[in-house]
Amino acid sequence: MNAPGPRTRLTAAEIRDLFLFESLEERQLEWLADRGRVETRPGAEPVYSQGEAATCFFVLLSGTVAVVRRLHGDDIELTRTDHKGVYAGATQAYLGDRVDQVYPNTLRAITDAEFFVLPAEEFAHAVRTWFPMALHLLEGLFFGTRASNTIIGERERLVALGSLTAGLTHELNNPAAAAVRATDTLRDRVTKMRHKLALIADGRVDGTRLHRLVEMQDEAVRRASKARKLSAIEASDAEDELGDWLEDHGVGRPWDIAPVLVAGGIDPSWLSDATDSLGEENRQAAVGWLTYTIDTELLMGEIEDAVNRISGLVEAARQYSQLDRASKQPVDVHELLDATLVMLQAKIPPGVNVVKDYDSALPPVPAYGAELNQVWTNLIDNALGAMEGSGTLTIATRCDGDHFFVEVRDTGPGIPPDIRPRIFEPFFTTKPVGEGTGLGLDISYRIVVDKHHGDIRVESRPGDTRFRVSLPVDPPPDDGVADSG
């Protein structure tokens, strides 16, 4: 007599023995028995894989299984069990085509395992038909949570934008205020210089000397434009020397005049040669006029520097936001990183040293520039927070074959090993209640992995934490993945 083969069906009584179905009516159990099947899977093989179309609902009958989630390039085992009746697979089939019906994880058989398997459409029909009230509750919970995630994510971005805007406003205010002050002072200096010119040209200075005075002015402007910046000690010594010369030659207010002339590259030897031919009676007016000339030149330099600083900040903001670019464009990653650092400048404490270790061979790459800036912002902001006011922030880039890497390092205390696997989970944060939503790294992960087909990993020990973003130099064509930022 032949031995019986492996069973392919469960009876209604056997299905009732599974805790998930123990409260069902007899007719419902018979319905499941008629539509479900028994399958055996060998050990050390996946029952289903993360990301595949979710076609079946699995209930464990015997054996040991593990649920595994692939996260930032690593397989993380979430749970392992041999408890009869545990279930996995198409658990969201009842939501239909309102969500992507794919397996959210990998179910792996550790030993040979036996399952009661129900097709996803049959499981969805049972939930919708038998439990209408529970269905509404589950739908409300699922879509309500997703809507909350969206709102909180938008709020997180608004808070970050507000912080960046405040920092940018502060940064813009400094050069703008400097330009206003310099313009105000310049107006006063020009007025006084016109007055000095009137004193010089009232007939007491002949044409030859006046011509020499104009030449002296031109030469002083040239010297001022090329004057090197002196150290505090060098400037103090030079001012003392020039102040003594001015005092010896009867020039009034020598200690007010000397700093301006020294800043313009004027020394006693040049000043003596320039004014000797004008006569002693004209020296005071000539030196005064020369001082106002140099002062106005220096003030115009200050205004130019301030305006260039404002222009640079505006360019950094444009680069950061990528407002003038299409969604996906070849971008210079170094320009994106520099723009992010400028936008975060107000948040970088004086005790933090910023080191840029860029690979000059890194080519422009097709990317969503504004969203990558969001990644850099989250990583840099976290690094600054970890160091608590002092340490070294290092931004490094490298190109290796068909991938390039951006690494954000900090010298903070490190991430404890027990929480490291959870840092990319939505809403997970180590900050006190109310100080963080826990979405920064989750958003960064989705931007890097889902939108750019890259990877993000972390290595951490006390004094050396490194977030490493890997992105393809030549990414595949845009596959229409929804905006995850």
Report the span from N to C terminus: 65 Å
Total domains: 3
Instruction: Profile the largest sheet.
Output: 5 strands, mixed
Q: Overall mean pLDDT score?
A: 80
Shape: rod-shaped
Low-confidence stretches: 432-439, 479-485
- Sketch the topology as an H/E string, one letter per element: HHEEEEEEEEHHHHHHHEHEEHEEHEE
Strand content: 15-25%
The number of helical segments is 12
What structural class should be given to the helix and strand makeup?
A: alpha+beta
Q: Can you count the beta strands?
A: 15
Radius of gyration over all CA atoms, rounded: 37 Å
Helix content: 40-55%
Strand order of the largest sheet: 10-12-13-15-14
Task: Describe, in plain words, how this protein is organized in 3D.
With 485 residues, the protein is of the alpha+beta class. It has 3 domains: 12-130, Jelly Rolls, CATH 2.60.120; 165-313, no CATH class; 328-472, Heat Shock Protein 90 (2-Layer Sandwich), CATH 3.30.565. It is 48% helix and 19% strand. The protein contains 12 helices and 15 strands. It has helices at 12-16, 26-35, 120-130, 132-200, 207-226, 232-248, 254-263, 268-276, 280-321, 333-343, 369-387, 440-451, and strands at residues 37-41, 45-48, 56-62, 65-71, 74-81, 87-89, 106-109, 113-119, 329-331, 352-357, 365-367, 391-400, 403-410, 455-461, 464-472. It has a 5-stranded mixed sheet, covered by helices on one side. A 4-stranded antiparallel sheet has the order 1-8-3-6. The chain has a 4-stranded antiparallel sheet with strand order 2-7-4-5, with no helix packed on it. Strand 14 (455-461) and strand 15 (464-472) form a beta hairpin. Helix 5 (207-226) runs parallel beside helix 9 (280-321). The longest helix has 69 residues, at 132-200. The radius of gyration is 37 Å and the shape is rod-shaped. Mean pLDDT is 80; it is low at 432-439 and 479-485.
